[in-house]
Amino acid sequence: MQKLLTRKIVFANRKGGCGKTTTAVNVAHALAMQNRRVLLVDVDPQAHATLSFGISPDEKRRNLFHLLKGDVSVLDIMLPTFSDNLFLIPASRDLIELEISLDTPSFNQTSLAEHLLTLQTESVKLDYIIIDPPPSVGILSINALVAAREVFIPMPMHFLAMEGLAEMMRMIYTINASWNSDLRLSGIIPTFLNPNTKIAKEITTDIQNTFGADKLYPGIRQNITLAEAPGYGKSVLAYAPKSIGSDDYKVLAQRIDCGQ
Asked: Cα separation of 48 and 40, whole Å?
């Protein structure tokens, strides 16, 4: 959030199991491999993005929980990763306390946005801030959307996912009206994709007719390496660089990088 050129992206979906965290981690790494400086912020108490970098959320380290409580600064918790251009703000399971606590005066809907703004005064140069929120509706998800300018919605190509897409659009409109007038839908990313199936073709057509062809981004095909990579604390680009999953995320990242 340092300057206007820093793109602040949230990958969000109210439905779990849609490939949201996988997309955040792998797009972040793919952009870093394109010589972009990227900060990935894990806002999910499940800490799956943090685990995908080989970092246990149970380790005794300062993380996003401490930042949102006002105990530390952003620079105190930014970690280097397996890529020179990629940094992580880790999550922990303690974040769930912020969702249910009623006596945390330093934490509100705009807290994350305000903390990320401090990077500007520290002259930290970033091309991207990528945010991975929880798949639920709560103050952490609201914080993620308030801190971003662009929303990308990863979604599987089945009809129940269309309801999740409609719910996400309603949430974007609410955030836009209440806290963040700059927030906009940038794209929809098909995940777990088999492009030859009838249902995938029908939903693709529905998305293009409803949102416009420019909102449909390159899809991510089904590939077992995407499920395997987090277990090794790696992105799929590091774990299986010649896989379909790696190829798809490189293409997606190139499209995002060119799509501003």
From this structure: 12
Task: Give the torsion sign (CA, 228, 21, 49, 140).
Answer: negative
Indicate the length of the chain as a whole number: 260
The pLDDT tens digits along the chain (260 residues) read 334 489 999 999 987 788 899 999 999 999 999 999 999 999 999 999 999 999 988 888 899 999 998 889 999 999 999 888 999 999 999 998 887 775 566 788 999 999 999 887 667 789 999 999 998 888 999 999 999 999 999 999 887 778 888 889 999 999 999 999 999 999 999 999 888 889 888 899 999 999 999 999 999 999 999 999 999 999 999 999 999 999 999 999 999 999 75
* Distance in angstroms (rounded) separating the CA atoms of residues 209 and 107: 40
Tell me the CB-side half-sphere exposure of residue 156, using CA atoms within 13 A.
12
Distance between CA atoms of 22 and 27, rounded to whole angstroms?
A: 8
Query: Facing residues of 190 across strands?
Result: 155
Neighbours of 229 (CB within 10 A): 24
| SS3 assignment, position 70 | coil
Q: How far apart are CA 48 and CA 46, in angstroms?
A: 6
Is there a contact between 191 and 21 (Cβ–Cβ < 8 Å)?
A: no
Task: Report pTM.
Answer: 0.93
